[in-house]
Design goal:
The protein is of the alpha/beta class. The chain folds into three domains: 45 residues; 231 residues, Nitrilase/N-carbamoyl-D-aminoacid amidohydrolase (4-Layer Sandwich); 74 residues. Helix content is 40%, strand content 23%. It has eleven helices and 15 strands. The strands form three sheets. The protein has a six-stranded mixed sheet with strand order 5-4-3-2-1-12, with helices on one face. The protein has a six-stranded mixed sheet with strand order 6-7-8-9-10-11, covered by helices on one side. A three-stranded antiparallel sheet has the order 13-15-14. Helix 3 packs across helix 4. The termini are far apart.
């Protein structure tokens, strides 16, 4: 009996080796299965990326003949009322206008007094809204800096923390005379839905800034402003291959959402000073040259799983994946569709060779 117990308690070496081999095989199978699951889920995470956006155009015009403390309280009340128009929707991003944390109509002295009283109370208010509604908020802010004032857009994440700050690169002369310091950076910020770049008002006039962003190609460019910019908004969207979301602090002017083809897809009106839009950030731009048949095959295979939008006149199309299982990048790769900028670069290179011919 003792011998039998010994056999049970001390397995034979061949038995141990056999078990180890089986264990290693099982672990290998689990590793392969985990890898296959990761590779399967990875395109799902990348494909069909809808983002719900609200933009509000409003000017906090308040009777300035009150104490700075009352002005701050009225500013918070004003923006609570404005935000209430859109907060019923489950939003990913809210965009607000330039210097929206300062009342309109203050002179330099009154502005300084107001800023000293306000401190971070408006940004704390916006942070609370972002946290309670689980959304990003981008708002224009005038605030004290080390050497003077900054005109900035502050991006808050879903927890109310600062995800990034952009300083206006090209303040107007009058702004700089009043102490506003120009920025010199074009940061692109990573959000959980994609990448975001920013511009403010007078910035829109400067091609050197636009060209910097064209190299970075953020998914969305946020434009907080007090003026509209007209066709330059469309140009910025198309040349940067980005969605463009403007919030204009002049109620008479529309706040808009523009797609990467430069087309307005949502706008505030003379009746409503806000607009909502759901955009899909899983997109690619392609020229029609050399792609006609490939695009037909792409649409034939994926049907409603892909949108191929032709705005007309520009010779390029916007390819958007509507399929949660495959990304636009995978689609264009599958059919060897040449992307817009790749085609332009190939044309440049071909031209260069032709110029060298005798």
């Amino acid at each position: 009996m003792q011998e039998q117990e010994g056999i049970l308690n001390v397995p034979h070496r061949s038995f141990i080796k056999h078990n180890k081999t089986n264990l290693m095989k099982t672990q290998l199978k689990l590793t392969i299965a985990s890898l296959m699951l990761f590779l399967f889920l990875m395109p799902i995470a990348q494909a069909s990326k809808p983002v719900k956006i609200a933009t509000i155009g409003a000017s906090p015009s308040i009777n300035k003949n009150q104490s700075p403390e009352v002005l701050v309280e009225q500013m918070i009340s004003f923006w609570q009322g404005q935000l209430n128009q859109v907060l019923k929707s489950k939003l990913d991003l809210i965009v607000l206008p330039e210097v929206c944390d300062v009342p309109v109509g203050l002179n330099s002295s009154e502005q300084r007094t107001y800023l000293e009283t306000r401190k971070n109370r408006l940004s704390d208010f916006f942070a609370k809204i972002a946290r309670e509604n689980n959304c990003y908020i981008a708002f224009g802010s005038l605030h004290e800096a080390d050497r003077g004032l900054r005109n900035s857009v502050i991006l808050l994440d879903r927890t109310g923390k600062i995800a990034g700050t952009y300083h206006k690169n090209f303040p107007t002369i009058s702004e700089m005379e009043q102490g506003v310091i120009p920025g010199d950076q074009t940061p692109v910020f990573q959000c959980d839905f994609g990448t975001v770049g920013m511009a403010i008002c007078f910035d829109l006039n400067y091609d050197e800034l636009r060209v910097k962003y064209s190299k970075l190609q953020p998914d969305i460019i946020i434009f907080s402003s007090l003026y509209h910019g007209g066709l330059m908004q469309n140009q910025w969207a198309y040349s940067n291959r980005s969605y463009f979301v403007s919030a204009i602090g002049t109620v008479q002017l529309p706040s808009e959402v523009i797609n990467p083809m430069g087309e307005i897809i949502a706008s505030s009106t003379n009746y409503f000073n806000y607009t909502l839009a759901t955009i899909n950030l899983d997109y690619k731009l392609a020229h029609l040259d050399y792609n006609w048949e490939k695009l037909r095959k792409l649409k034939t295979k994926y049907g409603d799983g892909v949108s191929i939008h032709d705005p007309g006149k520009v010779g390029s199309v916007l390819i958007t994946s509507e399929d949660k299982a495959i990304s636009a990048q995978q689609m264009v790769k599958e059919f060897d569709i040449e992307l817009l900028d790749t085609y332009f670069d190939r044309s440049r290179a071909f031209r260069k060779k032709q110029m060298l011919l005798p």
